[in-house]
């Protein structure tokens, strides 16, 4: 993914990382606010039910008490008792006695007025019936509910059930299972009343927040408009905001950290490895004696998606530090075998030197990797050289074990950049390497009066003493070539011969007619590379 795409994605994910948790928080706050409102409404509905139950119980009790009296129903004593029961009960408005359709007396005295035919709407028990809407003759105002036992009746104002202390926006209703809606307060609409009378699960959901409670034969409803919820919503949202802010911060930090990682060199190398953007160029290695090409050094390159080519020294050290060098080495080995399988199989006199890092040399895992990779390719292990810098061989014991294992399989091993590291005679004696590659910095001093120009004769002497093959790096001019050839350095590479080449160009270079010995004539025994285990 390109840099600006990663930055765009980071911005989008950061915004989403902030918006989504805040939206979820708002939704959660809304649900909590609704839940709290529903709880408040349930308390109101419970109060309505309680009032209804108490009122009914009081009316039933009063009627039973009156029915048990033996005195003349409309005697002064009986009327006094009716009045006493009416006054003692908050719910009962009136108790009366009916005789042959005539209201003989009530708690307020004798009347003699017509009672009329009042149909009963439902029965509480076998002998107690209820009429929901009774218009009392003495016009107490609102329609009343009448409970009747034998000839006694008690009038209850149903408004008393629903007349609970609540905000004006709160709508309340009470229904009896058999009698339907008994009382309402603040005029609940038909959609709310439907919740009392029909199946609540199938009834259309009203826009209001509501609570419906059923106890015994009564069902009570309390409802509030959604706008009432907003007052508690703010409080709930502010309560949830601190944890939401923490989540948002964590998400944004994680997004930024991930994109920084992806934008970091390590992240970019990881993407490059994932997309296998690394490829190999081959710098010819020349036998100085007759300038015959005997092989090549594999030098990794990175072609980014935008087409830019990154040189090895800009990413190899990073890959070494980040532990990505293993994957990189593996991809280089695979690439070399793909690029060179045909050429190496046809030309057993040719070798390719692959660079390995400290991690590769310490772990020794490359030996197995090479062994597996070479299987069935027709390439001889002798044709793959291992190159490692002196710094890569610092853990002498582990490096020696890897070198020995390489020898056992037929590979040769060269110390790269010789002279720039910790090279000492003792150190070299401990490592059974086959060749040294004299670093370019020393080759550069040939023919100059640089202070380091005196080093190269010593390196050459030391290598000869230890019977090591020498390959000089970075030969750029004829003077350097002449000096090295005269000093007995067997091999060399550098821009004087060729720059690192693409595989096809290297094969063409290898087969070039100019000054080259015919491939058939270039037999391994004539090569300085015929050394080895
Ligand atoms: N672990 C691995 N290390 C690798 C691998 N491929 C390369 N490397 C190491 O990276 C360092 C830089 O290498 P590179 O940029 O490829 O440079 C090499 C040559 O291009 C350059 N060269 C060769 N001849 C000349 C010359 O005449 N003049 C001149 N100015 N430069 C020249 O030198 C580098 C050769 O390096 P080496 O022989 O290995 O020292 C370098 O340390 C590589 O080792 C890899 O796959 N794995």
UniProtKB/TrEMBL annotation:
Regions crossing the membrane: 6-30, 237-257
Top EC category: hydrolase
One GO molecular-function entry: cyclic-guanylate-specific phosphodiesterase activity
Domain called EAL: residue spans: 262-514
PANTHER family, per database record: CYCLIC DI-GMP PHOSPHODIESTERASE PDED-RELATED, CYCLIC DI-GMP PHOSPHODIESTERASE PDEF
Cellular compartments per GO CC: plasma membrane
Entry protein name: cyclic-guanylate-specific phosphodiesterase
Localization (cell): Cell membrane
Keyword Thylakoid annotated: no
Family matches, as SMART domains: EAL
Superkingdom: Bacteria
Short name of any one Pfam family annotated for the protein: EAL
InterPro entries in the record: CSS-motif_dom, Cyclic-di-GMP_PDE-like, EAL_dom, EAL_sf
Catalytic reaction equation(s): 3',3'-c-di-GMP + H2O = 5'-phosphoguanylyl(3'->5')guanosine + H(+)
Keywords: c-di-GMP, Cell membrane, Hydrolase, Membrane, Transmembrane, Transmembrane helix
Primary location group: membrane
Entry EC no(s): 3.1.4.52
Membrane topology category: Multi-pass membrane protein
Record-linked CDD domains: EAL
């Amino acid at each position: 993914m390109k840099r600006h795409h990663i930055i765009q994605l980071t911005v989008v994910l950061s915004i989403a990382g902030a918006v989504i948790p805040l939206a979820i928080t708002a939704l959660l706050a809304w649900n909590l606010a609704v839940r709290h409102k529903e709880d408040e409404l349930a308390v109101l509905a419970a109060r309505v039910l309680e009032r209804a139950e108490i009122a009914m119980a009081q009316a039933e009790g009063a009627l039973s008490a009156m029915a048990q009296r033996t005195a003349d129903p409309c005697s002064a004593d009986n009327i006094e008792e009716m009045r006493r029961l009416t006054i003692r009960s908050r719910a009962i408005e009136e108790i009366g006695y009916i005789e042959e359709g005539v209201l003989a007396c009530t708690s307020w005295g004798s009347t003699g007025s017509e009672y009329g035919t009042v149909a009963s709407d439902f029965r509480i028990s076998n002998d107690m019936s209820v009429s929901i809407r009774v218009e009392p003759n003495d016009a107490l105002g609102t329609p009343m509910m009448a409970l009747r036992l034998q000839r006694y009746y008690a009038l209850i104002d149903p408004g008393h059930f629903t007349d609970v202390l609540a905000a004006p926006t709160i709508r309340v209703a009470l229904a009896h299972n058999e009698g339907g809606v008994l009382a309402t307060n603040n005029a609940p609409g038909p959609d709310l009343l439907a919740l009392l009378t029909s199946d609540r699960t199938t009834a259309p959901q009203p826009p209001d927040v509501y609570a419906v409670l059923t106890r015994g034969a009564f069902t009570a409803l309390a409802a509030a408009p959604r706008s009432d919820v907003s007052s508690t919503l703010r409080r709930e949202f502010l309560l949830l905001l601190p944890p939401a802010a923490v989540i948002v911060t964590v998400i944004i930090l994680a997004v930024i950290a991930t994109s920084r990682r992806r934008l970091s060199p390590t992240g970019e190398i990881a993407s490059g490895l994932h997309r296998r953007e690394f490829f190999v160029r081959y710098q010819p290695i020349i036998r100085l004696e007759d300038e015959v090409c005997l092989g090549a050094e594999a030098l990794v390159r990175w072609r980014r998606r935008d087409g830019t080519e990154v040189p090895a020294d800009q990413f190899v050290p990073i890959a070494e530090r980040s532990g990505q060098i293993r994957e990189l080495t593996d991809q280089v080995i695979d690439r070399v075998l793909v690029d060179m399988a045909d050429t190496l199989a046809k030309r057993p006199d040719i070798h390719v030197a692959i660079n390995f890092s400290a991690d590769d040399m310490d772990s020794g895992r490359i030996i197995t990797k090479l062994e597996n990779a070479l299987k069935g390719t027709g390439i001889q292990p002798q044709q793959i050289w291992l190159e490692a810098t002196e710094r890569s061989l610092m853990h002498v014991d582990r490096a020696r074990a890897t070198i020995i294992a390489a020898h056992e399989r037929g590979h040769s091993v060269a110390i790269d950049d010789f002279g720039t590291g910790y090279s000492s005679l003792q150190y070299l004696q401990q490592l059974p390497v086959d060749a040294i590659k004299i670093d370019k910095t020393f080759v550069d001093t040939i023919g100059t009066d640089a202070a380091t120009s005196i080093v190269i004769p010593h390196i050459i002497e030391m290598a000869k003493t230890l019977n090591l093959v020498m390959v000089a790096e970075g030969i750029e001019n004829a003077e350097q070539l002449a000096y090295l050839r005269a000093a007995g350095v067997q091999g060399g590479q550098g821009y004087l011969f060729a720059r690192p080449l693409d595989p096809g160009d290297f094969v063409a270079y290898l087969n070039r007619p100019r000054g080259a010995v015919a491939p058939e004539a270039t037999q391994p025994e004539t090569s300085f590379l015929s050394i080895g285990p």
